[in-house]
């Protein structure tokens, strides 16, 4: 663990959700909400940034949902309350090509992520059980190819390893799209500007806050762009090696409340 020696000037705190703020049971601690109130009272702004859908993020952060910025769908959508800040949907012309590519492996489970809902084919009851944790709103439809509404991203799940079984199939899209290994089991394919860094940069610009006043917590590759926008970049102990190398500081794992440990120190520095 390598914590900052001082927290002078920080005005914006950004945290990833799964593997970072959420514990292994996918819960937000009561201590975080207490720290949020104490730091908010001192003028600190919070951003929750996740590959999750917007509804799932605000469900986890229900008590403070109207008082924070939310970056959802890996940066494809950013909101502050009911106000939209960023929206970068996937080009509809690429959807079916991506689905065809993912279909080469029967053990890959694609999800079409729309603004307020998600859509799956429903061919695996085991996968649907997992999906409920990440998507509070989803529907089962017969053929994802026939879906014609706006799609923010395509998320793909593999029960064993996204890095081994999904990424090699979709890496061919990296020249024109954003392809992110967003977790041990997930890969996200989206608009080339649909990443957490793009959305965070918009928020920083709106608030007049630069990297020197920003603290970011992350654990996986989809956090790299936003970690680069913070002088106080913090990797979790359970972080992917790429994140551990990119971050300037480190903290305990999400199981050990690593975010709260740093925020405790930050709060102490303000009193």
TrEMBL record:
MF-aspect GO terms: magnesium ion binding; phosphatase activity
Hydrolase as UniProt keyword: yes
Protein name: Cof-type HAD-IIB family hydrolase
Gene Ontology CC terms: cytosol
Gene3D superfamilies in UniProt: 3.30.1240.10, HAD superfamily/HAD-like
Any one Pfam family match given in the protein's UniProt record, by short name: Hydrolase_3
Source organism superkingdom: Bacteria
Signal peptide start-end: none
Keyword Nucleus: no
Annotated source species: Muriicola jejuensis
InterPro entries xrefs: Cof (IPR000150), HAD-like_sf (IPR036412), HAD-SF_hydro_IIB (IPR006379), HAD_sf (IPR023214)
Keywords of this entry: Hydrolase
